[in-house]
Amino acid sequence: MGNKLLKVNIHKKLKEFDLDVNFELKKKCLGILGPSGCGKSMTLKSIAGIVDPDSGVVSLNTGEETVYYDSNKKINLKPQKRNVGYLFQNYALFPNMTVEENVAVGLSKNHDEKRISEMIKRFHLEGLEKRYPRQLSGGQQQRVALARILAYGPDVILLDEPFSAMDTFLKEQLRIELDNLLNDFDGFSILVTHNRDEAFQFCDELIILDEGKIIAKGDTHEIFENPRKVQVARLTGCKNISKIEIIDEYHLKSLDWGVTFEVSEKISPNITHMGIRAHDFSAAQKDDVNVIDTANSTLVEMPFEWEITLANGLWWKYDKQIREHEFVIPEYLKVDPKNIILLEE
C-alpha cells in the first residue's frame, strides 16, 4: 500500500440528523457498522460523487493527490472521473446487456478482450458470457457486478450491504470469495453493513456510526474486545447490558440483574453500564467469584447452541453438536472478572 491515504471529512444536513463523518484510511478495508438509517450509505454515495455533501473534503493520495471534492476550492469531480467502484445493494446490472457486455461497460471503446476474459475467469463466469442478468442467480449477478467494477482497475471499492438480499448458504460462499478478492485488491475498500460478523470478517479498521456521528473508530478486533460505549457494545453483538452502581474500584452492582460483580480493571467514575457477552459464562461452584444462581432458567435448543435465559434476564449461549438434544443447566454460573466489559453511556 505504501503511503496511500483516503481522506473523508464531510458534513451534510439530512432530514433526521446531520451527517458528520471524518476519517482517514491507510489500511486496506474499512468497515462502517451501524443500524439502518444512520448515514452509512450516504457516506459511500458522497465518496463516490453520487450525492454532494454540503461541505468538506474527499481526497485520495496514491503518490499524488486527487481531490474528489472540496467545498472551499469548489472542486467536485463527476463520479466517472473518480475511479471509484460502487457495488450497489441490487448490483445495478444493465438488464439488456449480456454478462460480457456488462463486464465491458467500464472499459474504454477499444477495450481489451483479454481483460474481459480475465475477469470472466477470475469470477467463475465461464459459460455464462452470453446470458442476461435475469437468467443468473443472485450470486452470479454479484460476481458480474464485481467483475465489472474490477475490470477498469479502481482505486477504491465501495460495498453497500453486499449480502443483504441473499440466503444464508449463498452468503457463506460469497463472503469467502469477496474476502479473497479484497485480499488481492491493491486499493482501498469500504464495506457498509449492519451485520457485525461481516464487519469482523472483512475489515481491518472499523467505524461505528449512529445518527450520522462516529461513536467509535479504530482496529476492528480492538473495538469488539473493548467497545467502551453502550451503543458500540450493542452493535458488536453484546447481549447482556445493565446499568450499574459502583461499589468500589473493583466492584460494581448490576441494577438490572441484582448481582454484584468483581472486575479486573479499575472502574473509573464515568462508567455507567456493564456488559457480558453471552458466550462468556461457565459452570461454577457456589463459592467462586462472580457466581450467579441459575434456578428457574429457561432453555431453548438451536441447531448449534443452547440459549439459556436466567430468571434475572441474563442470556447464556452454550455451543452444542447438532445431534445433542439433552442439556442439564449447571446450578451455578460464573463470569471471569476480565470478561466484564465496562461501558459509558
Would you report the number of β strands?
22
Number of distinct helices: 8
Sequence stretches where pLDDT stays below 50 over 5 or more residues: none
What's the shape?
A: globular
- The first-to-last residue Cα distance is 37 Å
Q: Biggest β-sheet: count, sense, barrel? A: 6 strands, mixed
Strand and helix order: EEEHEEEEHHHEHEHEEHHEEEEEEEEEEE
Residues in helices, as a percent range:
10-25%
Category by helix and strand content: alpha+beta
Strand order of the largest sheet: 7-8-9-3-10-11
Average pLDDT over all residues: 92
Strand content: 25-35%
Radius of gyration: 24 Å
- Indicate the multimeric state: single chain
Summarize the structure in short.
The chain is α+β, with helices and mostly antiparallel strands. It has helices at 40-48, 99-104, 113-122, 138-151, 168-184, 196-202, 220-225, 230-235, and strands spanning 5-13, 18-25, 29-33, 55-61, 65-70, 75-76, 84-87, 156-160, 188-193, 205-210, 213-219, 240-248, 251-254, 259-262, 273-276, 281-283, 291-293, 298-301, 305-309, 315-319, 332-335, 341-343.
